[in-house]
Amino acid sequence: MTTRVDTPHTIVREPAGAAQMRRLTDTSPETSLLRLEQLAHLMDSAFVVPGINRRVGLDAVIGLVPIVGDIAGMAIASYIVYEARRLGAPRWLVWRMMANVALDGAIGTVPLAGDLLDAAFKANRRNVALLRRHLERKGGLRPSEIEGKAVRLD
After folding, report:
1. Contact by Cβ (8 Å): 36, 83
2. d(C-alpha 109, C-alpha 66), whole Å
3. pLDDT score of 12
4. 150 falls within a domain
5. Residue partners of 124: CB distance under 8 A and separation at least 6
6. What number of CA atoms fall less than 13 Å from residue 57's CA on the CB side?
7. Which of 51, 78, 93, 99 is 20 to 30 A distant from 124 in Cα terms?
8. Which of 79, 58, 56 is nearest to 69 (CA)?
9. Is residue 101 a contact partner of residue 78, using CB atoms and an 8 Å limit?
10. pLDDT value at residue 96
11. How many CB atoms lie within 10 A of CB 69?
């Protein structure tokens, strides 16, 4: 299946999935941050635990596998730090994000209790929030929230 793309001078036919591939390979800050937010959601809060109504992600699930699960979780969390550096995060922010990953990994190595604390710490979401805040302040990204006071006009 192809998609028709009209440009001012030519008509181009794209193969199916080309738009999806462009979205995955786009390196703009907005698109990269969106991908990182989706990854952080998947790793830290993708599922709701029935009964306690608490959100956990794949990080907590794979962390149940001794040693290998914690290493895999830290590797995925390190990718978020790598992307932050690629997006121009300063050294102090990268170091803070690495400290979050290291703390998350250290907590996760403790059997069972560490997995529970690991599910509560959510290092990936913290790191993506730090990166978003930095990019918004630097001006490389539009703010996700409007600062100020809302007033209802009747």
Report:
1. yes
2. 7
3. 62
4. no
5. 39, 40, 43, 44, 57, 59, 76, 77, 80
6. 21
7. 51
8. 58
9. yes
10. 97
11. 19
Domain total of the chain? 1
- Contact predicate 60/46, CB 8 Å: no
Asked whether the CA dihedral 55, 128, 114, 63 is positive or negative, the reply is positive
Q: Which helix (H) or strand (E) holds 49?
A: strand 47-49
pLDDT one-digit tens code per residue, 17-43: 666 655 566 778 889 999 999 999 999
Domain containing 119 equals 25-138
**What tokens does 116 get?**
């529970």
At position 63, the amino acid (one-letter code) is G
Residue 3 counted as domain residue = no
Residue 75 located in a structural domain: yes
Closest CA to 39 of 12, 75, 71: 75
Q: How confident is the model at residue 73 (pLDDT cuts 50, 70, 90)?
A: very high
